[in-house]
Specification:
Layout: E1 7-13, E2 19-25, H1 29-33, E3 43-49, E4 55-62, E5 66-70, E6 82-89, E7 93-103, E8 109-111, E9 119-124, E10 128-132, E11 137-144, E12 147-154, E13 162-169, E14 179-181, H2 187-194, E15 199-204, E16 210-216, E17 223-230, E18 235-242, E19 255-258, E20 262-267, E21 271-276, E22 287-290, E23 304-305, E24 311-314, E25 319-322, H3 327-336, H4 340-352, H5 358-370, H6 380-393, E26 419-425, E27 430-431, H7 439-451, H8 462-473, H9 481-497, H10 516-536, H11 542-571, H12 586-605, H13 613-624, H14 627-635, H15 643-652, H16 657-668, H17 672-678, H18 685-703, H19 722-736, H20 750-764
Helix pairs in contact: 3-4, 3-5, 4-6, 5-11, 6-11, 8-10, 9-10, 9-11, 10-11, 11-12, 12-13, 18-20, 19-20
């Protein structure tokens, strides 16, 4: 210590801890007025060699305030003989001093050529500046008429500084006094500047987000206005918040905090607005909290700043805090939320902000299963699957996040109570750099995607749905055999790529069965997603893209299975769902309802389902639904008839009157190809009658418009029943012409039709047949 009772304004130490720069006020206004020698400067800036102590060099002796900031090279660099120091003057300029030191005996460090330190002007005529100490960047604003230009200078470890960004903002900055951010905190001066200057701060994110946050003056009492310029997206959002009635002295300036994935606008005692940086297009992805939900106990009554990501400085107490979103508090908020905008924002935050967490995922699935009917403007199952896939896949490959969908919504017309939002298109920033990595490369990638219409970059299932329907319903000519073979080969790769299901997974009785429709959809999704990624990620390589696509579709199927497993465990079900001799329980009905919603979500996104899903769904439907409802679900496509379930149904159920009704109703609805496979498992006159009818129908359809004028052959049947004799003789003649439709089932012929008709007739007449 060489002076006492100094009013320190700013100080900084170099990376090697050998030099100290300090700026302080020598006199107060009253003390200076009493001085006889008026030529003594009010402010002094010194450069001090730490060892030996008190070897001091005067850098500035002026009447304007000066802030000092040493530049820091990258971590791990060897000790350097050169230090660089920024001096920021209240007279609206910044200059850089290059300081060279020499080491002497006893580890002393002395400034070389201390009489004349090299210096260079960095910027002139600025009205606002912010220092990013973590990334060694200087953001500053230069006024241009009624607008402003934001610029950025990047300082490099072994190079001179470079101007790297320029962006025009529609912000009128008060230029009466320079406003500085993150250059230290002088309470008296900062309070004076704050009353005359705009509250503005720049935030960056690891994913290449660049936001300018500023609060605006409102003429209406109890109304707060603030704007967020999402420069990496090309638009600005201005929010107007109507506050609850409160005393004017309680209102404070909006504080902005950087949480990397979110920017927070915080007004103590009123609201906490978490604005999504990655996906700011829809307001429903931003959390707006009020009341107790917006309370940050430690930061309730203090002036705060965010010097870097996830950090907050209590300017009054000088305390620095880590700030993060609590997953437990977020889940509590999700569970008690009453509005869709809150639910969707909390769900999106939980899935994408906290990344992949097994425990958190399980609790979200539980919440979804309990709130399927409470969410009206979005499907929570769709949002869970799409957002989870985005979170799992995108960290693997650069720019993949711009190609894979992050949400199931295409628009959202809801409102956030108490908040009015206005969106304006702004010009994109201009970047000037060569071979720059890290943040600047990612920002440039974001800007390029905006130029090329970003919404169209995300994969969409519209084409997939059309192609799937065309192939499955054969509404156009069947594609080549090679094309279909490739599609089903894709499906086989996905199924073999699925995670090995452990013994616990068998808790859900999903069968690995053949499912033409679902395998066709899997294979088509692989093919179309691969084409989509190849158009935009050629530099990644075909092998890597193949792996990404297979992982994506396999993870999709695993997510559905994960939902099923959690639901199965919650309701404590077991494999008895495939015993049709008793009715289902309330728990089974609840699971059936959830499976119906999963199917609805899958249909909405044209998304494949795991093998055996439809069999399990149908099995629960047979146990839980009354017959007329079951048939209604089948007719409307909610339940799909599968060979596994129908075969078991026909074999296991006895032929009581009620079961006969069920079996007959199911058999009548079977597609022809499936019917030929499974009808043989039901040995019953009704089934034989149905087979005979279909046989006659097919024969007559094949006959077409051909005239049947051949003479009646000798009677085949000993029974004198002329209408039946005529029919069987005609069928036998058609068979003789080589028009047999049931070649693979020799037991079906004219004789079979005759015997079946006789049995059916005798049954109706209540006579005994022999």
């Amino acid at each position: 210590m060489f002076e006492k009772n100094l009013h320190i304004i700013s100080c900084s130490i170099n990376n090697e801890r050998t030099l100290l720069a300090v700026s302080f006020c020598q006199y107060t206004e009253e003390e200076r007025a009493s001085q006889i020698l008026q030529s003594v400067s009010k402010y002094l800036t010194l450069l001090i060699e730490i060892h030996p102590i008190n070897n001091v060099r005067v850098l500035k002796a002026v009447d304007s305030c000066v802030r000092v900031q040493f530049l820091y090279p990258v971590e791990g660099r060897n000790a350097s003989r050169e230090s660089r120091l920024l001096l920021v003057s209240e007279d609206k300029y910044i200059e850089q001093f290059d300081i060279y030191v020499v080491a002497e005996e006893d580890h002393k460090v002395v400034i070389q050529n201390s009489g004349q330190l090299p210096r260079a002007k960095v910027v002139d005529d600025l009205v606002w500046a912010q220092w990013d100490m973590m990334e060694q960047r200087l953001f500053y604003i230069v006024p241009k008429g009624s607008k402003s230009t934001l610029k950025c200078i990047q300082f490099y470890p072994d190079e001179n500084f470079n101007s790297i960004l320029e962006s025009h903002l529609d912000i009128a900055v008060n230029d009466t006094q320079l406003k500085l951010v993150n250059f230290g905190y002088d309470y008296c001066q900062d309070q004076d500047v704050a009353s005359k200057s705009l509250n503005l701060q720049v935030f960056t994110s690891k994913a290449g987000g660049l936001c300018v946050c500023c609060s605006l003056v409102s003429d209406i009492p109890h109304e707060i206005i603030y704007s967020i310029y999402f420069l990496h997206k090309g638009y600005n959002k201005t929010f107007t918040v109507s506050l609850e009635r409160t005393e004017s002295h309680q209102l404070k300036e909006v504080a902005f905090m950087n949480l990397d994935y979110y920017v927070a606008a915080y007004l103590p005692g009123q609201f906490l607005h978490l604005l999504n940086i990655q996906h700011p297009d829809l307001l429903c992805y931003s959390l707006f909290l009020t009341g107790e939900n917006a309370r940050i106990d430690t930061l309730q009554k203090c002036s705060i700043r965010s010097p870097w990501v996830s950090a907050v400085l209590d300017c009054d107490a000088g305390s620095l805090y880590d700030v993060s979103i609590s997953d437990s508090a977020l889940l509590q908020f999700l569970q008690k939320s009453k509005q869709d905008c809150e639910r969707l924002a909390a769900l999106h935050c939980a899935l994408l902000y906290f990344h992949h967490s097994e425990g958190l995922e399980m609790q979200i699935i539980r919440w979804i299963s309990e709130n399927l009917s409470t969410c009206h403007s979005f499907d929570p199952i769709q949002e869970f699957i799409i957002a989870s896939l985005h979170c799992r896949m995108c960290p693997e490959t650069q720019n993949l996040d711009k190609l894979l969908p992050y949400t199931s919504l295409h628009d959202w017309i809801g409102l956030v109570p108490g908040v009015i939002c206005a969106t304006d298109i702004i010009s994109l920033p201009v970047l000037e750099f060569q071979n720059s990595k890290g943040f600047w490369e990612k920002l440039n990638s974001n800007l390029e995607s905006v130029k090329y219409a970003e919404p169209h970059l995300h994969y969409h299932s519209k084409m997939l749905r059309r192609e799937w329907h065309n192939l499955s319903e054969e509404r156009e000519e069947r594609r080549s055999t090679a094309y279909l073979r490739n599609i089903f080969e894709n499906a086989k790769k996905v199924l073999s790529h699925l995670d090995t299901w452990d013994s616990e997974a068998r808790l859900v009785p999903l069968f690995e069965e053949e499912d033409y429709q679902q395998q066709l959809l899997m294979g088509l999704m692989v093919a179309q997603l691969k084409d989509h990624l190849m158009r935009h990620l050629q530099y990644v390589g075909k092998k890597k893209i193949d792996q990404i696509v297979l992982d994506y579709v396999a993870n999709l199927l695993n997510l559905v299975h994960r939902i099923m497993k959690e639901v199965w465990r919650r309701y404590q079900l077991h494999s008895c769902v495939f015993c049709f001799d008793e009715r289902g329980s309330a728990a089974e009905f609840a699971v059936f309802h959830i499976m119906s919603r999963i199917l609805e979500a899958a249909n909405g996104m044209c998304m494949p389902l795991p093998p055996g899903f439809h069999t399990l769904h149908l099995g629960l439907g047979v146990r839980c639904l009354p017959l007329h409802t079951l048939l209604h679900y089948i007719d409307n496509g909610v339940l799909q008839l599968t060979e596994t379930c129908v075969r078991k149904l026909l074999k296991d159920l006895d032929d009581t009157e009620q079961n006969e009704k069920l079996k007959f109703s199911i058999v009548m609805r079977l597609p022809e190809a499936l019917g030929q496979k499974v009808r043989q498992y039901w040995n019953h006159p009704i089934n034989a009658n149905l087979i005979a009818r279909k046989y006659v129908k097919l024969l007559l359809e094949k006959l077409g418009n051909r005239q049947y004028s051949r003479p009646i052959p000798e009677r085949l049947s000993p029974v004198e029943f002329l209408p039946l004799n005529y029919l069987t003789n005609m069928l036998a003649e058609i068979e003789n012409q080589g028009m047999h439709p049931y070649e693979k089932q020799d037991h079906v012929n004219a004789r079979f039709v005759e015997e079946t008709a006789l049995k059916h007739t005798m049954t109706l007449l209540d006579l005994k047949y022999s």
